[in-house]
Amino acid sequence: MNPLLSALRAAVGAANVLTEGDLSAYELDWRRRSHGKALAVVRPGTTEEVAAVVRACAAAGTPIVPQGGNTGMVVGSTPDASGREVVLSLTRMNRIRSVDPDNLTLTVDAGCVLQNVQQAAEDAGLFFPLSLAAEGSCTIGGNLATNAGGTQVVRYGNARELCLGLEVVTAQGEVWQGLSGLRKDNTGYDLRDLFIGSEGTLGVITGATLKLHPQPAATLTAWAAVPSMDAALTLLGLAHRHLGAGLTGFEVMGRFALSLVPRHFPQQRVPFLQESAYGVLLENSDQESEPHARALFEKLLEAAMEDGCVTDAVVAENISQARALWHIRESIPLAQAQEGLNIKHDISIPVSRIPAFCAETDALLQREIAGVRLVNFGHLGDGNLHYNVQAPEGGDMQAFLRDQEERVNALVFEQVRRFDGSISAEHGIGTLKAAKLPHHKSPVALGMMRALKKALDPQGILNPGRVLPLAD
Amino acid sequence: MNPLLSALRAAVGAANVLTEGDLSAYELDWRRRSHGKALAVVRPGTTEEVAAVVRACAAAGTPIVPQGGNTGMVVGSTPDASGREVVLSLTRMNRIRSVDPDNLTLTVDAGCVLQNVQQAAEDAGLFFPLSLAAEGSCTIGGNLATNAGGTQVVRYGNARELCLGLEVVTAQGEVWQGLSGLRKDNTGYDLRDLFIGSEGTLGVITGATLKLHPQPAATLTAWAAVPSMDAALTLLGLAHRHLGAGLTGFEVMGRFALSLVPRHFPQQRVPFLQESAYGVLLENSDQESEPHARALFEKLLEAAMEDGCVTDAVVAENISQARALWHIRESIPLAQAQEGLNIKHDISIPVSRIPAFCAETDALLQREIAGVRLVNFGHLGDGNLHYNVQAPEGGDMQAFLRDQEERVNALVFEQVRRFDGSISAEHGIGTLKAAKLPHHKSPVALGMMRALKKALDPQGILNPGRVLPLAD
Q1: Class of A3-89 per CATH?
Q2: At A118, phi and psi to the nearest 5?
Q3: Which parts of the sequence belong to the FAD-binding PCMH-type domain (chains A, B) (predicted)?
Q4: Across the interface, do A383 and B243 touch by the CB < 8 Å criterion?
Q5: Is B443 exposed, middle or buried (0-12, 13-18, 19+ CB in 10 A)?
Q6: Cα(A387)–Cα(A411) distance, rounded to whole angstroms?
Q7: Is there a contact between A170 and B448 if contact means CB atoms under 8 Å apart?
Q8: Partner residue facing A429 (CB), from B102, B187, B425
Q9: B353 to chain A: which residues are within 8 Å by CB?
Q10: Tens digit of pLDDT at every position of chain A (472 positions)
């Protein structure tokens, strides 16, 4: 009998230490790129139990892989194949702890599903803006550990900007009680932001105090046809000036990306598909009223058409039209999957440099790989592009992926570097990109990261090899 | 000849190493609480020179005190009395490096005066929201090193939320080039936020990329008479709902604090002074137009008067009226100084708990110290109170300060702790509050802070004893 397993059973109860049967829900990553093998999956129900699990693992020198909804994109929360790592699943910790409407805050367990967090805010007459495709199954702890982005960043910021305080179990199994509801607190180093985005490598987030916003009185959606990426940038500037903080969404989509949607989902109609090189989805959240929102939107689109950066536009008349427009945007990844295998990138570039980046990188790839097709879409307001590369029409897709993935990645990432961009805008590093990190961070930055890791987790038991590659 | 001085002269030129004459501009802190003695004041002109200075000091084991405009409130950027510390003044590094309007960013040297940063944004047709009393002489590097707050936090956040990237010289004299203009970048630990607010104890900020916003089309100011702190809180909730992101200022001021203004500056008239327990200054920044801003303000104030949380209100008709209202708010600290010595606190409390905090703490102090007078004002929207305690009318103020300061601090800080607040909302810790920190942070938090300090500055040469008290 493994003494660590006994200690874990003592900490959380035997029923919450899983070692047998099909554990693929915990061992297989979301994109099905890696199927690991856990020593055990441990499911604590309280912060104290999490601390006890960490202490037991620390005593045994056993690595811990914290896991939320297991919806990550970069293999950051599933075990490796060694059978030596313990998966620490937070999903049993799913309580809404408290709501404080006058303070505009909500305090929750880390294992709360994002949709339930959004709902708790709504039940209090308020709004929690974090929104992303996996919201029905991802957890807020995972969102914070990876500093999730999503569609509302242009107005409300990333997960980092939506969090006021954390509760964290340290690598030593102590509890840091940092659940502050304060908007101003300058008493020492910013521990909160160090844990946010550290992907479970510095501590285990067990609870969070989140920042809420007033619910908008009306949210309207528009679709604009724009002739070029330059024009999309001009439209973005006009939207900032006309809508200010009302601009809560700005998604740009290239024509080829859009053309895949009706090709694979014929019931969907994409506005202005033939006439324009790009479509832009705009969202305007208004504090006042729907007529006011509509008047502002019309004024903006008139100015844009006068400028020439928009050639045609439509404002959704009702919620179902708005949903249909968003549905086009959300269908692109699915349509792309139907079209076949492809190489995905989640990059960011300073907003002002995106037109030049796209023009150069598109041309470069088309020159290097004949017939390659570019599925380009993203959150232009944040400089975040999902710059995906699809095999040539009718080609052998498996062969394309096998032969070209490394080369395409190298070409794209080198372009990203030239344009002062990031190779991971919102998905993180995990295992998938850890080996690439040293090529994209300066030795000074990497040295500081290693020093911080060593300072907080000297034993190296928290999610080892994720984010920072293991030393040789 | 001191070999360190030779090395410093070689690094920055002899003219920029000051050792003689009146150095009180660098050695005396802003509130004139501490007059230290520097080994030398060194004034590098470039990032490379800063790095050379740090390397020279590191080689000699000599402590460095980074300094910007020397306007800090907590004795964090002046030398101690030992004559052993080198003051590293950043004020010669005052270039606006670049503006990128399409990316809504501005990149500057750390030594730029805040007002010049604001002006550079305005010159580009944009807006940098950080605003505070010392803006004519404080530097952006100091603002970031102390995570400055100010009057616009309710809408735009603290300095932390206004910064996208940093350039930092490490304790080893290396340059971390982290001047990112990216809004999304999840490639590793959040080094930026670790340096922001660390008060020069982890690295020396030499440059920053700042986040700009569109200029509002109109900014209106109103003054409301409110009968109680509870009513002020209700008004804040209504303002959030009616104005959304338009609410850019919400300052509450108690009647006694307000009464000091006409007492010492008779030309100033405070609206509704006799009729109401509190005055609230509201600012509404509108993306659309002045008539629209006015209509929204009137609707809000009507709703508030109907509710009863406001008994009377006035909206400034023009800019000079708006300035006069802000001038009252800004005159409170000066009027308070005219009234005599007092004990200042810069605290924050969760917004929802402020009415109970004030009621309890006011009563406690009045019970403990007969005749004590409370000068209470602050940024209610952020939960930040300047909760100041004035000697009884006509009493011996020197004696009051001498006999009561420690006791008053202890009483107020204990209340802050009971209400889950912070003993330093926006001013930082510096030397002044370093000894108090261990009583207000958990051992786990302090342990992590010490580990981080040791990881990044193992020699302990950067601003030693500030923020973290020196170990015994």
Answers
A1: alpha beta
A2: -55, -45
A3: 34-215
A4: no
A5: exposed
A6: 12
A7: yes
A8: B187
A9: 103
A10: 699 999 999 999 999 999 999 999 999 999 888 999 999 999 999 999 999 999 999 999 999 999 999 999 999 999 999 999 999 999 999 999 999 999 999 999 999 999 999 999 999 999 999 999 899 999 999 999 999 998 899 999 999 999 999 999 999 999 999 999 999 999 999 999 999 999 999 999 999 999 999 999 999 999 999 999 999 999 999 999 999 999 999 999 999 999 999 999 999 999 999 999 999 999 999 999 999 999 999 999 999 999 999 999 999 999 999 999 999 999 999 999 899 888 999 999 999 999 999 999 999 999 999 999 999 999 999 999 999 999 998 888 889 989 999 999 999 999 999 999 999 999 999 999 999 999 999 999 999 999 999 999 999 999 999 999 987 5
∠ CA B457-B461-B466 to the nearest 5 degrees?
90
- Alpha carbon B105 to its chain centroid, in Å, reads 22
Cα–Cα distance for residue pair B82/B452, rounded to 1 Å: 26
User: For chain B, which residues make up each domain, given as ranges?
Assistant: 3-89, 96-214, 218-418
Instruction: Report which secondary-structure segment, H or E, holds B255.
Output: helix B255-264
- Placement of tokens 């896991």 in the chain: A67
Token pair listed for A177:
């009680």
Å from B443 to nearest chain A CA?
9
Instruction: Provide the edge-to-edge strand list for the sheet that holds A96-100.
Output: A96-100, A105-109, A203-211, A163-170, A175-178
> Beta strands A38-42 and A85-89: pairing type?
parallel
Give every CB contact of residue A158 below 8 A, 6+ residues apart in sequence: A147, A148, A149, A426, B183, B184
Q: Which CATH class is domain B96-214?
A: alpha beta
3-state secondary structure of A285: strand
Report the C-alpha gap between A160 and A137 in whole angstroms.
20
Question: Tokens representing A116?
Answer: 């339930």
DSSP element (H, E) containing A237: helix A229-243
Produce one character per residue of A226-248: b if its CB has 16 or more CB atoms within 10 Å, e if not: beebbbbbbbbbbbbbbbbbbbb
Q: Are B237 and B282 in contact (CB under 8 A)?
A: no
- Beta strand pairing status for A64-67 and A85-89? parallel
d(CA A345, CA A48): 39
Q: Which amino acid is at B151?
A: T
Token pair recorded at residue A373? 């097709």
| Distant-in-sequence, close-in-space partners of A414: CB < 8 Å, separation ≥ 6 | none
Tell me the β-bridge partners of A222.
A282, A315
Tokens of B454: 């040791």
Could you tell me the two tokens for B441? Answer: 């942070």
Q: Do A186 and B146 touch (CB under 8 A)?
A: yes
Cβ atoms < 10 Å from Cβ of B37? 14
Query: Residue B455: its chain A contacts at CB < 8 A?
Result: 451-452, 454-455
Buried b (16+ CB within 10 A) or exposed e, A269-292: ebbbeeebbbbbbbbbbbbbeeeb
Which residue in B has a C-alpha nearest to residue A101's C-alpha? Answer: B352
Distance (Å) of CA B223 to CA A303, B226, B280: 36, 10, 6
The DSSP code for A462 is: B
Q: Which CATH number fits domain B218-418: 3.30.70.2190, 3.40.50.1360, 2.60.200.30, 3.30.450.40?
A: 3.30.70.2190
CB A301 within 8 A of CB A281: no
Count of Cβ atoms closer than 10 Å to residue B197 Cβ: 25
Q: Please name the member of A186, A440, A444 whose beta carbon is closest to the beta carbon of B428.
A: A186
Name the residue among A166, A164, A117 with its Cα closest to residue A137.
A117
Residue B27 gets which letter from DSSP? Answer: H
